[in-house]
């Protein structure tokens, strides 16, 4: 059975009992009379709860129009009954003169009970607009006092005068009603075009309620007491059904008259906008404060604290907190970083910020939880102050969009359920938009600072790396040297070095550390140290590379290796020894005027440094190649940035093209060939900025005048090759 049907049946039971008393000629006993009055008041209360529970949110015009229309109907009905029926109350028994009087009393009483319940259910959304805790408490107080006022006369005969307690509770009820009537915050949200209609409806409602009071108490719709003396005032028909119900309806009718009048006056004089203006001023202050702060403060934490304070200062929420992501530190889940109205720990515990963050993304905007404590994503329990919750994204609507929800969410809570009105949400969304913009500025500033810092560090690293390269090349009779290096970034992973080993001997190293940037540069510095120290201990290219593998392999990171080629030129003997550790093949060019002239790629075996950390396999595979140099011999040691350069069609420069170019220009000096090769590289790639680190060293042997017998080049380059480490049973395998 629904509350509405139960209420009507309850009133029918009361009416039947009253009719039976009239038929029997004796009033019911005190207990029965109290029970009937309580039943009547309970029925009216049930009717109110039934209507309030099904009404939901309605517009202000409808909230005023419904009770106004119903009030007019009840007024007309009351006047009609008063004009067409001549019943009265017997002053001696306190009973109606006949049963038909009870019937009309039941009809009017039920109508007025329905009017009172409708009036309260309709005005409730307006009176509770914003649902502040204080307003809810005041509304509950008003209802409680109204019921107490009604119950003070429960069981009392009609002709007994009003008790003092009823006057006290009634006055308190009226004061509470006045306090509610003065809360007209909803008017500030009313569209201007609706204000005239709202004012007319409110005035009509107030006038109708006043008219009902007049008609029922001494007016044409009142039921007279038949003693003829006039000492006992007339009663409303509803009092015949239940004096408590009549008192209840009286309080509600007075409240309706006051609320309608207050609404009309507020619309006419703008009295209601004071509180709303205060809130709007608070909202403006919060936005202005945030805007000012965003211009001066670029610290994310300080901005987050200001964002959390904003809704609370503007009275848009009782508590607020900010949860931000931090992709730059690998944190893609939002973390609560600031709170206002709650401690940081309480805010963190109150709700699952990550789940709400993703739900807000799916909702494509603000996510409103009117009854937050019932939501599985909210951990706060009743009494924790999170009865309703709004989650606002601090960015665009897409979680994957550039700068979208990556910044996080703003969560705003109220201590009462269903507390956020449309104007609150609009203000919060505006505030969240400004907050996202401020955070964006702070992030951009932080990014700019970081880029500037990195640029300074890279510039410094580049300067340091430049010092790792030879500041000048040694001068050796009969040998021309030239070198060049072009990093793809500020700091590259290529390395070359030339050291003098005695008066007539130089060692030349070209290496390429896998990867680029600062890590590669660190390994390059380490390689330089090994080379500088090792080249003075041995003239064997194989032994130096093996020593470099032993020294560097333990310190290289996983997957990091270095290719290298090392050549030793003995100018006194006119020989060159070469070993290659997984590096690009060296280019050897000999004058074609000689019988043994030509160009070759020297591809001696050898693993890259770091691939065999134990070193046995590295030594086993490493080969040395030796060349008896002839005047005009040119050797090019280089990194893969030279051969892997691509033209506009994506074609690699390649080894053969490189060797042919060196051969074509081998007659010029080493320095001129270096410049020609750099120009060729730029022309091929079509850019001054190489895609990969590019480094090379040119060695051109001019000789010291001694004759050099032609070598046998029928099976390959004029080199002799040997294992760098001949098989030794004592070496580990």
Written description of the protein model:
This protein is an alpha+beta fold and 733 residues long. It has 3 domains: 1-272, no CATH class; 279-447, Beta-Lactamase; 470-701, Phosphatase 2c, domain 1 (4-Layer Sandwich). 50% of the residues lie in helices and 15% in strands. It has helices spanning 3-24, 30-55, 60-84, 99-127, 133-151, 164-181, 192-216, 237-241, 243-269, 273-296, 300-313, 344-350, 353-363, 422-468, 517-534, 541-552, 616-621, 640-643, 655-664, 670-685, and strands spanning 222-223, 235-236, 319-326, 331-340, 367-369, 388-393, 409-414, 479-486, 494-500, 505-513, 562-570, 575-581, 586-590, 598-602, 623-628, 634-638, 694-701, 719-723. A 6-stranded antiparallel beta sheet has the order 9-10-11-12-15-18, with helices on one face. The protein has a 5-stranded antiparallel beta sheet with strand order 4-3-7-6-5, with helices on both faces. Helix 5 (133-151) runs antiparallel to helix 6, helix 5 (133-151) packs antiparallel against helix 9 (243-269) and helix 14 packs parallel to helix 15 (517-534). The longest helix has 47 residues, at 422-468. It is rod-shaped. The two termini are 93 Å apart. Residues 397-405 have low confidence and may be disordered.
Shape call: rod-shaped
Cα-based radius of gyration, to the nearest Å: 49 Å
Secondary structure: number of strands: 18
Uncertain regions spanning at least 5 consecutive residues: 397-405
Widest beta sheet: strand line-up: 9-10-11-12-15-18
Total helical elements: 20
The portion of residues forming beta strands comes to: 15-25%
Give the total of domains. 3
Roughly how many Å apart are the termini? 93 Å
Determine the fraction of residues in helical runs and give it as a percent range.
40-55%
Major β-sheet annotation: 6 strands, antiparallel
The assigned structural class equals alpha+beta
Q: How much is the average pLDDT?
A: 84
